[in-house]
Structure formats: structure tokens, C-alpha cells
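seq as requested:
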Amino acid sequence: MSDHVLTERDEAVLTIRLNRADKKNALTRAMYDAMGAALSAAASDDSVRVVMLAGGADFTAGNDIKDFAAVGDRPANSPGSAFSFLENIVAFPKPVVAAVRGYAVGIGTTMLLHCDAVVASETARLQMPFTRLGLVPEAGSSLLLAARVGTVKANWWLLSGAQISGAEAAASGLASRAVPDNEVEPAALEMARTLAALPPGAVAETKRLIRAPHAAALAEVMAAERVAFGERLRSAEAQAVFASFLKK
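C-alpha cells:
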């Protein structure tokens, strides 16, 4: 487990907490691996009924740009920690509740599409700035976002990389609720406890049924996104953006 990813137990609720506050919880390869390992362990642990994802003052500023910039030093077919984590959260059979405060950038927003409930701070700042970085969407967001918030909003958010408040995310259906900042984690934990108190077999089967009709299309889209994302990461256009960012 990475020092930047902590786990906490509240009876049947396992919290996976990002713990890199000095970098606004920017995600490294080691952090993705740790989150994926925590999800894998929770999936097979009958004492865990719900997982809650949380940060601190910030959920996550997205992928660490240094890791993006270094991708040219790795083989094109090397495993992608971020994509492995996404596969883990897509396949996770139990409910996932997210508590979102501060920044939720890139995968910090797209992973919410795979959570079963999301509590956001009214002042949270969600953003999918893929095009601004010379990249393309991931996590199946090119399919799922429009289904969640409508084509018009999804198109603008993905194409422009515009910032979205937590209040707007809730009003649009990207988040379940928007609450004052200091109420985010208590509200998310309350929802997690509610789900944890229900018969686990029925909850798991209901989650499976909800997702089953779209599973094949999602897998196809995520595979296509992964190829395109890898190509864009290695493009001169994206690498120039990363270099400029790191000089600041």
C-alpha cells in the first residue's frame, strides 16, 4: 500500500483515502496500484459491504503530470496503472460512494461515473481538461457522461474542459447530492452505512442488473479510449503541453 493511499474501516464500510495533500492528491502510478489493490481485496472480503472514496481538502487534482511526461520512456504496450485501476472500479461488485471536496480533475471526475453515489461539496471544482492537455477522455466518459448529464452538457464539458461546481454537478446528475463542504464526508458515510445495512446479496445483484445492459458497450468504448489516450500521451502536441506545465 502506498503511503499516499490509506484505508480506514467503519464497521462494514471501507474508506480508501488519498493522502497526498501537498500535491492536491495528484495521482501517481503507485497510488493507482494501491487503490486497485485495495478494491481487489475489498471485493473478496465479505466483511466489507461498501467502499467509500475520499481525499481531504481536495479529492484529487488528477494524474500527476510528471507521470504523463515520462510516458515516452516506457514501451507503448506497457501496462497503464490508471487504466488497470479503472478496470478494477468498473468490475467492483459492491457499492462505491465518493466524497468529493475541492478539486476533482480528469480521472477525479470520470471515476465518479463508476460510483453508485457521489456526495460533492457545493464549492467542489470538477473538471475534465483532456483536450487542454492534448489528450482524450478516458474511463468510458465519452459514452457514460452523455447518458448521465445529456449530450449538450457532456459535449461542452469534454470538448472545452470547462470547470463544473459541485452544485452544478448535482443539478446535472453527475453527483447524487451537493452539500456544504464540512458536511461532505458525514453525508457520504451516512449513505455508505445505509447501503451496508442492507442484505449484501440483493445489493450486489441489483448493482449487476443495473450495469449489465451497458457492460459490453462500455468495455468496447474503454478499450478504444485506452488506445487513443496512449497515442495522444506520446504525441508531440501533448508532450509540449506537459513540458510547458512543468516549467511553471
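Residues 121 and 179 are 5 Å apart (CA to CA).
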